[in-house]
Amino acid sequence: MQVQPTKYVGLVADLMPNIRLMQASGHFLFRYVTGPILIRKVYSWWTLIMVLMQFFAILGNLASNADDVNELTANTITTLFFTHSVTKFIYFAVNSENFYRTLGIWNQTNSHPLFAESDARYHSIALAKMRKLLVLVMATTVLSVVAWVTITFFGESVKNVLDKETNETYTVEIPRLPIKSWYPWNAMSGPAYIFSFIYQIYFLLFSMVQSNLADVMFCSWLLLACEQLQHLKGIMRPLMELSASLDTYRPNSAALFRAISAGSKSELIINEEKDPDVKDFDLSGIYSSKADWGAQFRAPSTLQTFDENGRNGNPNGLTRKQEMMVRSAIKYWVERHKHVVR
To answer: Which residues cross the membrane (predicted)?
Structure first.
């Protein structure tokens, strides 16, 4: 299957360096690609198999060295560390459609003339933070792998073994590799050692990059959401001032507790007919029913009807173009930030 090159916009364009690195590290991310998808799928499955094989080798070492407490503790910590990476890799592969859906929801590119400057400013801030986060995390990941491999050549390459007959612990020489693992071949020296060493460097780099890139994507969404909230805060002030300047009808708050039926002009709640009592009060003269509970408390879905100069029923003196601007501003505010509320 061939995918044609596409120009991406919005959040997808902002996250494209992260997405490309995730695809290069073997993540099952096939939506935003160019070229044959089959090759990328084969590459992702091959990466998964290679990662799982080394992870099973770590589990094999854990199971085969469970007698000594120190070895068991160290191997358990190593196993849990890489379990975290493998779990994220598999979780993303299984739930890739949910990630596509989330990217689609957040991939907002629309703007509004009233808020274009604010939107561009906060978008640039979010984009700068995303890029800085990606660079720092990837640089730290590479340095961590280099440090992990470097310390392999320091100290003795041995492990503790418990003699069950004498109940004594003695040391045994093991291959000088970055990660203690069990292999069906002899990795002490020769080509088998070189292959095992390169294989573990590959596993270290890819597993840590896969895990950290998934975290960077989540943090990038969080950074975008925070800047969107700042954008929301920035545009709320002019919207509040605009709303305060509108001289619209405000019904009595008591109308919320009383209404008129569709075919009747009388109130649904009336005074019960009973014998006069000094403690009872007639409330019929307190409210003007049509003014307080009237049917005019229904906001029309269409624009107000007025002429080109803003007269004939428009209490704000707005022209039709201004009225459309106000309504489109409200529409923009709702559509742009409803995913943040969700």
So the answer is: 43-63, 133-154, 190-209
Rounded to the nearest angstrom, the gap between the alpha carbon of residue 325 and the centroid of all alpha carbons in its chain is 32
β-bridge partners, 161: 170
C-alpha separations of 121 from 124, 133, 189 in Å: 5, 19, 58
Q: Reduce the DSSP state of residue 163 to 3 states and report it.
A: strand
| Spatial contact of 124 and 224, defined as CB atoms under 8 Å apart | no
Q: 57 forms bridges with which residues in the sheet?
A: none
The DSSP code sequence of 27-57 is -S--SS--EEHHHHHHHHHHHHHHHHHHHHH
Tell me the β-bridge partners of 162.
Answer: 169
At residue 257, what is the residue type? F
Average pLDDT in the 86-101 region?
88
Residues 256, 252: Cα–Cα separation, whole Å? 8
User: Would you say 79 and 62 are in contact if contact means Cβ atoms under 8 Å apart?
Assistant: yes
Separation CA 192–CA 194 (nearest Å): 6
142 or 328: which leads in pLDDT: 142
Share of the chain above pLDDT 70, in %: 65
Per-residue pLDDT tens digits for 108-138: 666 666 667 777 788 888 889 999 999 999 9
What are the φ and ψ backbone dihedral angles of 49, each rounded to 5 degrees? Answer: -65, -45
Determine the pLDDT at residue 268. 42
Q: How many CB atoms lie within 10 A of CB 149?
A: 16
CB atoms within 10 A of CB 336: 19
Cα(81)–Cα(74) distance, rounded to whole angstroms? 11
**228 in Cβ contact with 122 (< 8 Å):** yes
Mean pLDDT of the chain: 74
HSE-CB at 138 with a 13 A cutoff on CA atoms is 13
pLDDT at 333 over 50: yes
Given the structure tokens 């003196």, which residue do they identify?
317
Residue with the two structure tokens 């020769």: 190
Q: What's the rounded Cα separation, in Å, for the pair 211 and 84? A: 8
Q: Which of 220, 228, 230, 239 is nearest to 336 (CA)?
A: 228
Answer yes or no: is pLDDT of 240 > 50. Answer: yes
